[in-house]
Design brief:
alpha+beta, 12 strands, 405 residues
């Protein structure tokens, strides 16, 4: 859903540190071939990282790994066709929101118990593979959003919601032609970011076990009202202009690591920094990225899980994540290699420690785009209060899911 660009060059710097998964596969023969589907390489350097991972794994396990690279925009369509035809690969990348759908219809397999140590992964990243308490894949890379701030307008980034509102108000008061912040809109992108603020108020979107909608409770209302409260100091008449933050017309914005490289390249004179999202009661954030899963109708399931643990282990996960354009999901890899991402990416690494996975519901993308996003926009445009907008959205969500609680 959300893509980004982070230093491919740093991925190359880690090539020398890649190590093969130790030991051979006693059940594998020279004829064993594992088929792996992934997105097309972002850069030639990223392709070199993937190729070294593949060849090292093949040598260590006496197998062949056939990698099929598909353009990201075509991937889900081709995968859907393969699922319908029963011609799925052994293992492949899967967008986080699709895990629940494919798990519940039996397309992908539950990970065998004892395959990995769950504590080796960031909870938010691993939880994107959990459906009804069971794990159906492993997180290859992940990403999040953070606060971007103009250092000339905002010398010290705010840490709390109160500080955020105060800082935005001061920026606009000092110069009415400049907005305090680019407030997200009520669209699919804004709907993806908003749960990070809700979690920052101690709230949750849903209770999947008891089938209850929670995003219309007080934490959700407070999170949406924060955005509404920022609008007087952040007029859309200013922030709707092209690249308001990059052109110095806004003191702050919320975005992902992909904009770090974009701003440096296109707006080299802008002095900016990044910081974790301000919060009300506890640090929190959202999450995006890719998982990898083992298909039920594929072959060589044992080898497929071995391949996934190899890609996400402490030795290899940073290089792979950087090749994919994200951050490592393996805690040891991230902590060891944090410096390779550079200071401008540090805030995103902090966000990923406290990221919250989206609900493991097959309908969640529809709920995000068609119910929550319009509710956010309704409140931001003044058509409804934050409570009214979320109450209506919760009612629609219950009807869609068939939940009565």
């Amino acid at each position: 859903m959300i893509r980004r660009v982070t230093g491919a060059a740093t991925g190359m710097a880690l090539l020398a540190g890649l190590v093969a998964c130790g030991g051979g596969n006693g059940t594998a023969s020279e004829a064993t071939t594992l088929t792996y589907w992934m997105f097309q390489d972002r850069t030639p350097q990223a392709g070199e990282v993937v190729e070294k991972l593949r060849t090292d794994f093949e040598k260590a396990n006496n197998v062949t790994v056939k990698i099929v690279k598909i353009p990201k925009d075509d991937y889900n369509t081709k995968l859907g066709s393969a699922v319908a035809a029963g011609t799925v690969p052994d293992v492949g990348i899967l967008d986080q929101p699709l895990v629940a759908r494919y798990a519940l219809d039996g397309t992908i397999s539950e990970m065998p118990a004892g395959t990995v140590d769950e504590k080796a992964y960031y909870p938010g990243a691993l939880n994107t593979n959990k459906v009804s308490g069971k794990i159906y894949g492993l997180p290859l890379d992940h990403t999040a959003v953070a606060l971007f701030y103009n250092k000339k307008l905002v010398p010290t980034p705010p840490k709390t919601w109160d500080e955020l509102k105060q800082t935005a108000a001061k920026v606009h008061q000092d110069d009415p032609k400049i907005a305090g912040m680019v407030v997200p809109k009520g669209d699919g992108y804004g709907g993806w970011m908003w749960p990070g603020f809700l979690a920052g108020a101690g709230g949750s979107l849903v209770d999947e076990k008891d089938k209850k909608i929670l995003f219309d409770q007080q934490p959700g209302v407070d999170a949406l009202q924060l955005w509404v409260d920022l609008l007087p100091s952040s007029p859309r008449a200013i922030t709707d202009s092209d690249k308001a933050f990059e052109n110095g017309l806004a003191g702050m914005m919320i975005s992902g690591p992909w904009d770090v490289a974009n701003i440096k390249e296109q707006f080299p004179d802008l002095e900016f920094g990044t910081a974790p999202l301000p919060y009300k009661t506890e640090p929190a954030g959202n999450i995006g990225g890719e998982n990898a899963v083992v298909f039920s109708k594929g072959k060589n399931a044992e080898l497929a899980w071995k391949w996934l643990t190899y890609l996400t282990n402490a030795d290899n996960n940073t290089a792979l994540a950087q090749a994919l354009g994200g951050f490592p999901t393996n805690v040891a890899a991230a902590e060891r290699d944090a410096a390779t991402f550079g200071p401008d990416q540090a805030a995103f690494l902090e966000q990923l420690k406290v990221a919250h996975a989206r609900p493991a519901l097959p309908e969640w993308i529809q709920i995000n785009d068609e119910i929550i996003a319009p509710a956010i926009e309704s409140a931001l445009s003044g058509k409804a209060t934050s409570q009214q907008a979320l109450t209506e959205a919760a009612t629609k969500t219950r009807a869609l899911l068939g939940w009565n609680g």
